[in-house]
Amino acid sequence: MRRMNVPFSGSLSLSMIVLISTVSTGAAQAPAAPAHQHYVYCISGSSMPVVYFSEVFAAATTSDRVGPSPAPNRFYEIADPFKAFLDKKYGAEGHSTVGPTCRVTNLDPTGLQTAQAAKQKLEDEYKQSKKQIVETGWKYTP
């Protein structure tokens, strides 16, 4: 790259100062979400008459994609603490032996709305199947 020596006249135009200020602050750019961040909600297995739901919350998962193996929507790092919570608060026989699953959506403004709508739709489906829905208020905290 070639360097140019330009004599400095002692004053910069206002437009140059504004341009330099805007470029250096990056005011128009939003911070990127951390990798593997999603909106998540968990549910107990649906084989029992009562189905337990967590809150919708933001969390990091081990995979970018929905349904990492070995089981779709399992996300063990979040589902296992939810199961432990259910065992402690409601008793092991109070929820399905299949184990909880966790559903994820993208971490963006529409992702929260999407997760809340999907959770509500699933609750409505279970209610139509004559299942009792319990909102546990549980949120994952790593």
What does this structure look like?
This protein is an alpha+beta fold. The chain has a domain at 37-135. The protein has helices spanning 14-25, 76-90, 109-128; strands at 37-43, 50-53, 57-60, 101-106, 132-135. The strands form two sheets. The chain has a three-stranded antiparallel sheet with strand order 3-1-4. It has a two-stranded parallel sheet with strand order 2-5. The protein is globular and about 35 Å long. The chain starts with 13 loop residues before the first helix and ends in a 7-residue tail after the last strand. The relative contact order is 0.21. Mean pLDDT is 72; it is low at 8-33 and 64-70.
Order of helical and strand elements: HEEEHEHE
* Helix count, DSSP H or I runs of 4 or more residues: 3
Q: Give the integer mean of the pLDDT values.
A: 72
What fraction strand?
Answer: 15-25%
Strand order of the largest sheet: 3-1-4
Helix content: 25-40%
SSE blueprint:
Layout (H helix, E strand, L loop, with lengths): L13 H12 L11 E7 L6 E4 L3 E4 L15 H15 L10 E6 L2 H20 L3 E4 L7
Parallel strand pairs: 2-5
Antiparallel strand pairs: 1-3, 1-4
